[in-house]
């Protein structure tokens, strides 16, 4: 049997800003990786789809690019 828990958060203004910043960072990384995958597919449609472990491997070279972005410095890892 699967069980779930519903949880409601009531963050204060500072916490809300931090959550918004983290979600924005996540969305930016997601969009960068999606653009990379789409470009890879457009260049060679015969290449196989990359799973999450291979995408994590490809993410490591992008970390230096992400560290240069000012808005990534506003939140922790």
Automatic annotation (TrEMBL):
Residues 1-45 form the Transposase putative helix-turn-helix domain. It comes from the Bacteria. InterPro entries: Transposase_put_HTH (IPR021027). This is Transposase. It comes from Lactobacillus helveticus (Lactobacillus suntoryeus).
């Amino acid at each position: 049997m699967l069980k779930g828990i519903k949880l409601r958060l009531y963050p204060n203004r500072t916490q809300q800003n931090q959550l918004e910043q983290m979600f924005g960072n996540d969305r930016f990384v997601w969009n960068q990786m999606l653009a990379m995958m789409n470009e890879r597919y457009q260049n060679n449609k015969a290449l196989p789809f990359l799973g999450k472990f291979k995408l994590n491997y490809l993410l490591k070279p992008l970390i230096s690019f992400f560290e240069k972005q000012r808005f990534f410095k506003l939140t922790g890892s």
